[in-house]
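Raw record, unedited: Transmembrane protein 179B
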Amino acid sequence: MAVFDVQLCVNTLLYFFIFVCGFAISIPIGVTDIQSKGCVLYGSLKPFNATHYTLSFSSKANCDFPIYVGVFVCIFYALGMGIYNSYAIYKSQKDPSISSQMWVMPFILLNSLVTAAMFVSSCIVSVGFRELCDSLTQDKPYQYYSSCDKAQNQKLRLDGTSNIVSLGHFYAYINVTQTASWICTLGWLALVISGIVRFALNRRLRTQGAAMSSDTANISTIEPTA
């Protein structure tokens, strides 16, 4: 049973790690969204004169989706699973077989959906960020910014208005969101693979008569053996 105990501990730590990364996803892009008063992902910067650009925002959904995924998937759901697994570790101190009696298949399916959503969110951030930076540095009559990070804290005119905004430290913030998002994607994928491995091991144990009902037993209802 040591294999299952080690796997359960690793999964628990991974859930809590993803929980922390969820803040690194949602907070930076949320701050950028508030500072610029619009979504800069997939936005564009067009030349206004030799030293200034006009900024066009994209749909708010382009920023809202990564924020919602970061909050509800990486923070709330990962925290809940971390607590659930922590409880299982506590119960396993009295009954080492508890880890082989936990639900497996439902979480494989759910974590697979979460991984897909996380992958889509990461692509939105990466591609949207790349398009914004490309519009700033490429194919412009005025090459005022040689790289994307040069536009941090610069005053930019909103397209179609006379309003001036600052993107703040948008380059650093979105880079943090982008990195954390892909790390979480890999983390969720690792949890899916771990679940598949445990499901296969549980089936082998059941065929050997060493475990029972590993995919349907609720750990909260299992009484520890003396």
